[in-house]
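Input record (one chain):
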Amino acid sequence: MEGNWRASATTAIAPVAWGATYFVTRHALPAQLPLWGSALRALPAGLVLLLVARRLPRGRWWWRSAVLGLLNTSVFFVLVYVASQRLETSTASTVMATSPFVLMLVARPLLGQHPTRAALVGAALGVLGVVAMLTTGAARPDPLGIAASVSAMVMSSVGYGLATRWRDDVDVISSTAWQLVGGGLLLTPAALLVEGPPPHLGPEALLAFAYVTLVATAVAYLAWFSGLRRLPASAVGLLGLLNPVTGVTLGLLLGGERLGPLQVVGTTTVLVAVLVGQPSTAAVVARLRDQLVRGAAPVRSSADEPARLTEPCGVSPR
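The corresponding structure, as predicted from the sequence alone:
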């Protein structure tokens, strides 16, 4: 059980870092350059991890890296960038929190994993919390931003499922590096063709890219894919609900965004949903239930026992 808690805590680094990414992207990165913004996030992070792994793809991992790079990096990062620029931090991160249901749907055909009752309850609570948080925001959500966020969530869920299914004997650092580099290499020529030369970045943008690249990509993706290897996809998906909690908190504290009463209730509901769906929580509940059952079991007294025949030692009845 301790190992599950540790795995959950490590995996939670990813959605917390991603929730902060919405705020950083919206307030510190160039708004009209989603391709360059995504390429400068993916490629440096992948190269850093590649230097750590010191291992290149072999055989079928060349085309797998390209597919995963497309799903989890190239298109996903662009869609997230667009959503971050067009939506409030709280709204952008909240829409992505519907991913637990999508991950559960993907995990069934790709991984053969069936969600537990606790995971389904947690996902339902999470969606209720998401709806409360989304519908009570101060600003009216932008339809294009919502569409970009939903598309990113669906595409990444499929990509995460494939990454888990294709893990084979490849370590998580190598597989994460390969798909980030693959996605960055797909993005760079597209950025050159569509957006022109790389943008000039001031000190604030450089610091923002340093955070997005090293923390919200290299470290976060390592934590996320490690979690997918050690925890059920449903539990990992529920940890993704920490994404909107982080986004809402930063939007409130740093972005001047306002929260209504229902958003506070929604945030609390989301936190409860994360706990409900974790394997460690289920183990604790099962242990408490067993203790209660044992404690409630009737204790038989000596009066309840049938009378026994007292016989001399060595004498058997006739």
